[in-house]
Amino acid sequence: MIQILELQHELWVIKYELKKLTLGKGNFSEVKLAIHSQTKQQVAAKVIDLLYWNKEYKTEISVLQKLHHPSIIGLVDFERCPNGRGIIYLEYKPDPTLGCIIHTGATLSEPQAVKVLYSLVDAVNYIHSLGISHHDIKPDNILYNCATNTVKLFDFGLALTVDPLHPISSSNGGSPLYMAPEILIKKSHNVFISDIWSIGITLYEILVGISPFDSCSNLSSLKKEWTKEKDISLPKNISSKLRMVYAQMVKYDPEKRISSLEVKKILVPLLIKKTLGNSLGGSNGKTKTERTSSVNAIIRSIHNKKRVDILSK
Q1: At 290, phi and psi to the nearest 5?
Q2: 100 close to 302: Cβ distance less than 8 angstroms
Q3: CA 141 → CA 126, 138, 224, 241, 267, distances in Å?
Q4: Looking at the structure, do residues 87 and 108 belong to the same domain, yes or no?
Q5: Are 164 and 131 in contact (CB under 8 A)?
Q6: Which residue, of 77, 81, 200, 311, has the fewest CB within 10 Å?
Q7: Whole-prediction pTM value?
Q8: Do residues 21 and 310 touch, judged by C-beta distance below 8 A?
């Protein structure tokens, strides 16, 4: 039954019941599990303090309303609450983020990584065609389903809307370890090309387990690494084809960096090969079976814990 509260002669309909289970936390939000009062549909409720983050709230809603893609978390509903909070109700997927998997010490096999990379680049190519830059792509903003080897990109609070034919901005938002060098080094930059750098660094991390800039303790040390153009090549045990496409994604000079559409074209032959697992190799010291099993085990444990938490609420 839908609850109705009377507040200062105004009626406020409570459509969703927020649960105690916290699905995640960001710089300006907390994500809770929520259930629709009538349909019992489960959604992810992103709760934002509008006093400080009203712009981000508006940005995410306006962007998500335009997006409909299988590799992007969909918008379900949104509302402003009397307590000064804004809530964005999103498609709920009980999957861990790639960041969560990496933090447990696991990495993806090359066949898994290629499929993840293609899905991610396909989603980013789609948003770029609409004049949108995510501007904060990183493992923590990507849900991963091991059973289907699929991803869901989320968190568009820092997204930028630009002219698709002239995608230039001077915004310096994002997460430093995944932020393209030109964002802070130059006053203006091509935000589409900057997204590609972030995807490249994400690829490195899901294959190797750490960021190529993991030794950088602060922004100053990170800038020094950028300035001297630190070698951030993938290890030699990764296949040459994947190392090649990665290298073109993380060129320090943005004008030499590959586009999302070009990445897609290069990846297609790798995806359609029936012998993808054998042709790519790159086990990083583990067999494909061992690596996949370890990721499966982690996802099962995370999923089961969430399931128990949900049932106990």
Answers
A1: -65, -45
A2: yes
A3: 17, 6, 26, 26, 22
A4: no
A5: yes
A6: 311
A7: 0.83
A8: yes
Q: Which residues contact 152 (CB under 8 A, 6 or more apart)?
A: 71, 72, 73, 91, 93, 95, 142, 143, 145
**CA–CA distance, 304 with 6 (Å, rounded to integer):** 39
Shared-domain flag, residues 54 and 167: no
Question: What are 264's two structure tokens?
Answer: 């897609």
In angstroms, the Cα distances linking 255 to 7, 182, 243, 258 are 55, 10, 19, 8
210-235: pLDDT as tens digits: 999 999 988 899 999 999 999 999 99
Q: Residue 128 domain-assigned? A: yes
The CATH number for 208's domain is 1.10.510.10
Q: Which two tokens stand for residue 126?
A: 């789609």
Distances (CA, A) of 98 to 30, 54, 87, 160: 18, 28, 24, 23
Q: What is the pLDDT of residue 173?
A: 81
Tokens representing 269? Answer: 């032959």
Q: Give which of 244, 248, 228 is closest to 236, Cα–Cα.
A: 244
Closest CA to 102 of 116, 92, 90: 116
Tokens 């990109």 sit at which residue?
153
Amino acid identity of 180?
A
Q: Would you name the residues annotated as active-site residues? A: 136
Phi, psi of 155 (to 5 degrees): 65, 80
Residue 16 Cα to chain centre, angstroms: 25
- Domain coverage including residue 146: 98-289
CA–CA separation, 134 and 157 (whole Å) = 8
Domain boundary among the residues 70, 91, 112 is at: 91
